[in-house]
Specification:
Chain lengths: 234, 244
């Protein structure tokens, strides 16, 4: 079989698992689409160090099982390979995602101004909490369809998990280059990011349940919560 | 449209918040003691809402086809888990939260409404509101000075209103009204077994007479002169009536 005429780069580019080739000067020589998105969550240096640390002793490849988490990316193992002293490649294997069987009745979703729901939640939160709230948003964010009640509960629980801090930063923005697929249709993502010094994890289970029921992807970290909401418009 | 009056910042925030969300289909609950104006507030904010009593056997049935509802006595609702609030604007009213987890799961917005004791800034204006209402309802023209210390807020609006009506009546009453009240009261006390009724109810006249005199003059000597009775007789009466 002659495989040299096949353009492998295209297939690697389409792969959901991130793949990066570094030069020995830590410069990125190649990265596929999945790696492009991953680079929004992790520094070059960190990935390069990871590759060097888990590289085989001699020319060849080595696969290592390890749990890695960068933003919404979760990996269960990596393969590091090199053929010469000039280049080193790393491939990160996505952890299988449990299929979400929840059925969100899209006809029940209502076109909503996200800023209105956010403002109402912040006003309520401020009634019973004294921490400083710093909201960074765009008042011209387009309306999209959500379950208003469920989303309000998700925002409320996210705020509550930061309530013992002196301040909470809230940032609403549209995520560029990523999308959420629902029923074979891709939707832009509106991200709400809550951040402070520490976070109470007692609300995590509720937050996860509310997210799962609404096709929302939530990232729970020590100091922040990111909520990625599909901007369903039809 | 109904008016809702308050000087309390917490209630102003509740009103502000509900006004922000008034076009959204959200489930909210207002929790607070009885007779603090929860239904009045909800009706003021949602004048077209259907009012559903949660003591009904089937609240879901009552909510069918309704977009906007106020559910009263929510603490008494049965089968909370089965309630369907999808795409409805719900304002529930309750005197306590009950199972916090279920309430938390069911409602996006949970408001705590302060009692009158917790919002003293509202007492005086509310008392004047009830005073004007009482004057109109009872056709009393004369003005009175409310004794704020004597206002009863133990049962919030209910007891406040009652104490304002009482103060107005006490201040407006004439001797012939007292006579009629006494007549009706004493008539009920007469029966075939009645004995020494004169002696038994004489205090109804003597006690306020002497108590008011003591409050007015302080001195028993002066009061005995004004009442035209012997000083020893007055002292004896004071002891008998326990007016020390």
């Amino acid at each position: 079989m002659n495989s040299t005429s096949i353009d492998f780069e295209y297939f690697i580019d389409c792969d959901n698992s991130p793949f990066v080739i570094f030069s020995n000067a830590m410069k990125v020589i190649y990265l596929n689409r999945a790696a492009e998105i991953l680079m929004g969550y992790v520094q070059n240096r960190e990935l390069y160090t990871l590759a060097i640390t888990h590289a085989p002793q001699d020319i060849g490849s080595k696969t290592t099982l390890l749990d890695l988490k960068y933003g919404s990316f979760i990996f269960h193992s990596i393969t590091v390979a090199y053929q010469d002293e000039e280049h080193i490649a790393i491939r990160l294997y996505n952890k299988p995602i449990i299929k979400n069987d929840s059925t969100m009745a899209q006809e029940k979703l209502i076109l909503t101004d996200i800023n209105t729901i956010m403002e109402a939640n912040l006003t309520l939160f401020k009634m019973y909490n004294s921490c400083d709230m710093h909201l960074l948003t765009d008042t011209d964010l387009p309306s999209f369809k959500v379950d208003q009640n469920q989303l309000s509960k998700l925002i409320r629980d996210s705020l509550d998990s930061f309530k013992n801090n002196n301040y909470i930063m809230i940032h609403l923005s549209i995520v560029i280059g990523e999308s959420i697929r629902i029923n074979d249709k891709r939707h832009q993502i509106l991200q709400i990011r809550f951040q402070s010094d520490k976070r109470n994890e007692d609300y995590d289970q509720n937050i996860k349940t509310l997210s799962q029921n609404n096709y929302v992807v939530t990232m729970l970290e020590d100091k922040y919560i990111k909520i990625n909401i599909p901007m369903i418009t039809d | 449209m109904e008016q809702f009056f308050t000087n309390n910042e917490q209630i102003k925030s509740i009103i502000k918040n509900i006004n922000i969300t008034r076009t959204l289909f959200l489930s909210s609950i207002i929790v607070g003691e009885e007779y603090i104006g929860k239904l009045h507030l909800a009706s003021y904010l949602f004048p077209s809402a259907t009012i559903v009593d949660a003591t009904l056997e089937n609240v879901n049935e009552a909510l069918k086809g309704v977009d906007e509802a106020i559910i009263t006595h929510f603490e008494k609702v049965k089968n909370i888990d089965n309630l369907d609030f999808d795409n409805k604007r719900i304002i529930a009213l309750a005197t306590f939260l009950g199972n916090k987890k279920i309430i938390h799961d069911k409602f996006a917005f949970i408001y705590q409404m302060p009692s009158l004791k917790e919002r003293p800034e509202d007492i005086e204006p509310l008392a004047h509101y009830f005073l004007n209402e009482a004057k109109e309802n009872l056709s009393i023209q004369s003005d009175i000075e409310l004794n704020y210390e004597a206002l009863d807020i133990s049962q919030n609006f209910k007891s406040l209103k009652k104490s304002v009506y009482q103060q107005l009546l006490y201040a407006s009453i004439e001797s012939q009204d007292i006579e009629k009240i006494m007549y009706n009261f004493l008539l009920k006390k007469y029966n075939d077994d009645t004995q020494e009724l004169y002696k038994h109810y004489l205090w109804l006249y003597e006690k306020p007479l002497i108590e008011a005199g003591l409050d007015r003059y302080g001195s028993q000597l002066k009061l005995s002169n004004i009442l035209g009775i012997n000083r020893n007789t007055l002292r004896k009466k004071i002891n008998e009536l326990n007016l020390h």
